[in-house]
Amino acid sequence: MSTLALLANLVALLLAMAVRGAAIDAGLLIKAAPGVVLLAASFALRRQGHIRGAEMLAGFSILLLVGIVCSGLSYLVAASDLPLRDAELMAADRYLGLDFSRVLNGFLQLPRLMLVLNYAYASFEYQILLTPLLVLTCARLRAAQFVLAWSLGLTVTVAIFPFVPALGGYLYSGVDRTGVPEVLVAFAWNFGDIFLRAREGTDLLLGADDLTGMVTFPSFHAFVAVLVAWACWPVRMLRWPALTWNALMFFSSIPIGGHYAVDLIAGGLLACAAALAAVKFSVSSRGGRLRLAHEWATRPVSAQAGTISQSASIDTRSPVPSQT
For residues 8-41, b (16+ Cβ closer than 10 Å) or e, as one string? Predict the structure, then answer.
């Protein structure tokens, strides 16, 4: 299913390129090359019977390729005549009693927490790549579900993005980076130039430098924070560290990423929906095999042995023609 999500996004990217008359820079192809090599290697390992190694390589390749394809697709679909939705997102925050300026000032009063939040926010990409590797060693099914949920969530995020374009709290409010020295990660300001250039629709050469997150609603940092915490939950040694660290990354999206509170809520809900869909799909696709395995595992040992002996008994007698 993750491979199908990758193919669907790739087809959408190619269609968008054909409609817009866009082209791909060589740097983008070089960046995608490792993912293609890993995917090919996973198919080769699977054919040789190395299932666990194949699953690991396939997971990494899909994480890389879906991210690259969806980033390129988001750049192309950003060219829209729809107005920026920052005013509506800010109004939604105020309705919830979470005005961006007041929430930000509350965080800025805690400099030590802000330092930790900078590191938590910057751990986004590392967690995406390390989570399936760590989980795969103890919970292979959850690792596969994580990759599928990531693919589904990113696909939905790119589909929503053209209808809710936004600059984020810092850029929309005109807050200069020098005014918040506590924020060490400059992403909330740096993405603005690429985003506005993409909205103009004049630069149609997709390069590696254009592969940056441009989505404000829903927050993909919040999405990944919930998804990683969920993926690590079955592994006891990772459960609470992952939950604690990703709670920090979730809330860092406001003071470090310049997101609105409703962005975080939407990202968290999307993660829950994607995780539920991944679990439902994995259970339905493996339903028959899982039921048989459970029934076998819960049978008495003597019954299992009897079944084995019966299945191993082969009637070797063959009719012998009578000789007269």
Answer: ebbebbeebbeeeebeeeeebeebbeebeebbeb
In angstroms, the CA 280 to CA 145 distance is 10
Q: Are 259 and 168 in contact (CB under 8 A)?
A: yes
- Exposure string for 139-174, b = 16+ CB within 10 A, e = fewer: bbbbbbbbbbbbbbbbbbbbeebeebbbbbbbbbee
Predicted TM-score (pTM) of this structure? 0.81
The domain tally of the chain equals 1
Residues of the chain with pLDDT under 70: 1-11, 13-14, 16-17, 19-20, 135-138, 203-212, 283-324
Domain with 57 in it? 2-282
Q: Does 300 fall in a domain?
A: no
Burial of 234 (0-12, 13-18, 19+ CB in 10 A): middle
How many angstroms from the chain centroid is the CA of residue 304?
A: 41
pLDDT of residue 291: 46
71 assigned to some structural domain: yes
95 domain-assigned: yes
- Distance from C-alpha of 133 to C-alpha of 138, rounded to nearest angstrom: 10
Inside any domain, residue 322? no
pLDDT at residue number 311: 42
Torsion on CA atoms 17, 21, 27, 29, rounded to nearest 10 = 40
